[in-house]
Please model this.
Amino acid sequence: MPEYTIEELEQMLNAARDERIFELIKTPEELEYEEMLNVYDLEVSYIKHENTILIARILKSQSLNKILLHSYYYIEEIENNEIVGRLCQGFTISRYQYNEQIPEQTLNITGTILAERG
Model:
């Protein structure tokens, strides 16, 4: 058995305690997401705008009878009255049963900003 110093044992104990505390403070959404990631029948698909910009990510599990739909929203960067970029600002989560039809997803722009170059 390896020999540890008291300081090393205290560090290991603190790390284990911190990990346990982190588990206890997870939100229901985080726990639901983790549950989906750990199922054996997870199906993941993506919806993209013009084959480049992620509009949505779909996580499906028949065993959980659940769909999690992450719909992303963006702001557009404008320079000389032209779109030069899009910045993802976040996403919303919608929940459906496994056999439910998901509404059509479109590019969601919530605002514009002037591009800052330099």
Notes: The longest strand covers residues 82-96. The mean pLDDT is 87. The beta strands are 43-49, 53-61, 66-79, 82-96, 108-114. The first helix runs from residue 6 to 24.
